[in-house]
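Example record

The entry below shows one chain as it appears in the dataset: sequence first, then structure tokens.
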Amino acid sequence: MSGIISRKENELISNFKKNGTLKKFNPEEEMQGLAKNGGVAVICADGDIDAELFHRRISHRPHAIRIFGGPLLFSPNFGGYDEGFARKMIENVKQGMEVKKTRTLYLYFHAPCGLATAFNHEIPEILDLARSVNGSFTSDNFFFRVFTLFHVKRINKGGIMEQNVYLLQV
């Protein structure tokens, strides 16, 4: 099946959960009153991961930007980084959030990610890139809240495919 992490990557995710780097995302607990004007999601356009469906469950006014690589494109340490493009995209997100009066941003990173793989970024590095992107937004003081999420499609112990969303502890 496409877009499913390997057994080795699944073990790595388990270790990140155990050490507190990743926490299963529970929107009801994490978001009480934070997204009253909806939220903007930056999502990879990869059709193998359906983060937009998840985003629609947690935001009553979902605004989504779908582009291959998603928020990876905002990190200067990403192999496919283009400074001009990243700057314009960030400016567009800020303008859109301002006109829609929303102050919640969701950055959806995921694994496996074809674009990350094309530039030789593995899960630990993707999480580091996610932290740097989060930092660039939160240091700006423009956004009310940034949720840096990591979406994974995997086969569970029962042999069933599942999709999980984790909050990256930054």
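Notes for this example: The longest strand covers residues 145-155. The beta strands are 22-24, 39-43, 62-66, 104-111, 145-155, 161-168.
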